[in-house]
Fold this protein.
Amino acid sequence: MEIHETIWEGDYADREPFLHAINEINSIEESVLVGLNLWWSDYPYDLRIFAQTVISRESDDKFRAAHKKINYLMSECQARQRTDITLEQLQQAVGQRQMNSVGAILGTPVSDPCRFPTRKELIPKGYDPQDWTAKSRVFLSHQNERKEEVIDLQGYLAGSDIPTWIDVHDIDYGQNLAVAVQEGIAQSSIVIFWVSEKFLKSNWCQVEFEGFLGRYSGRRDVTILTAVERGCIDQLPPLLQGLKYLELDSPGDPRKVAKEFAPAIRRALTGPLDKGWQNP
């Protein structure tokens, strides 16, 4: 018999729609749906749930109808087709006690096999499993000659409950620098340009400037704050000259920068911050 096998991954934490889709699939005619298996991991550090659908190709019309229905149901529950995982890998994972598996009895309702409760079950018990991480950050753009000052600035902003992106902490060893910087730009709705002599000559700083300039000119979804050392004011790009900036005596005072910019940052970030500026 010629068959078509597909492996799907659902969301373990919100698996109710996935299991509902599985039960809908399990109503497909037995001569067409020849296999339906669940694979899941209750290992706390790797909670996963998969389904393997196996349909017969004996009848082209029935195959196409079943294939269409399965794809539709899995799309509706936002399951992801895993073409990178094979049946052999899943079987090996069971042998290594990484996964559990059960075969569905065709036409019989499939119950939830997972050990840990879903988000929906946890909420009435007082848990609120929402994403509490910062939705946006303040990108600290600078040249290495001001690294010490900007690290200090990051500490002052953190003390005022302001989330930041800074290369020394947010780019890991071995990570592609260009990719990491673009990700940081995408995650940030505010940028602080600390403009020094070497900043204006730095290729990396130019990349960061152009990245935020593109967003500012196009979507206007970014707030640009500039701290500029007095000897560099005349060399500022036209865009930055047109925006109110903070003048600094070289090499600049991180505490002053944080204190001056904190109110504007709070207004720009989504949602109020609970803590005001904290004097060190």
